[in-house]
Design a protein that fits this description.
Strand 2 and strand 3 form a beta hairpin. The protein has 157 residues and is α+β, with helices and mostly antiparallel strands. The chain is 47% helix and 19% strand. A five-stranded mixed beta sheet has the order 1-4-5-2-3. Helix 2 packs across helix 6.
Length: 157
């Protein structure tokens, strides 16, 4: 998937199946977060990055050009993943496929929840979703693609 292709729901679901991890430790959060920072710096991406296991923030970085507003977006996108156990982009895509929007049909406060791309579930084999990795600062598909690329690289190490 290039950052200009809009993935199908099937492709988004396949990403989630493929990116199940054998474990996720504090050290893994540092490694994944550092990889995201490296990707963002290579692209001069003005993003904020957040990694959580449950309610605990294990990693956070704000790169040049990002703002406090990006942290608010992180929180809203992360809450969608926590509630639906799917990427924030996939949740939004599922609503769009039904001919509606997340904002119109979820019955959730849009000040607290945003089904915009950039937050992805951290899923551990045999356990399920244990946390989130979120990027905010680019158009939503690019935020999503950056997280997926980092998880693919992280998983292959």
């Amino acid at each position: 998937m290039t950052t200009h292709d809009t993935p199908t729901i099937e492709e988004l679901e396949a990403q989630e199946r493929q990116l199940v991890l054998p474990r996720f430790t504090h050290e893994d959060a540092w490694t994944l977060g550092s990889l995201l920072v490296e990707l963002a710096r290579e692209r001069n991406a003005p993003v904020a990055i957040d990694i959580r296991r449950g309610p605990q923030q294990l990693f956070h970085a704000a790169l040049p050009g990002s703002a406090a507003d990006n942290d608010a977006w992180i929180d809203r996108k992360r809450r969608v993943v926590e509630r639906y156990a799917s990427s924030s982009y996939l949740v939004g895509a599922r609503f769009r496929a039904k001919g509606t929007t997340f904002e119109e049909s979820s019955r959730l406060d849009p000040d607290q929840y945003a089904a915009h791309g950039g937050s992805f579930p951290l899923t551990v084999e045999g356990t399920g979703v244990i946390g989130t990795v979120t990027v905010s600062g680019l158009p939503q598909l690019e935020d999503h693609a950056m997280v997926v690329e980092a998880l693919q690289r992280f998983k292959s190490t």
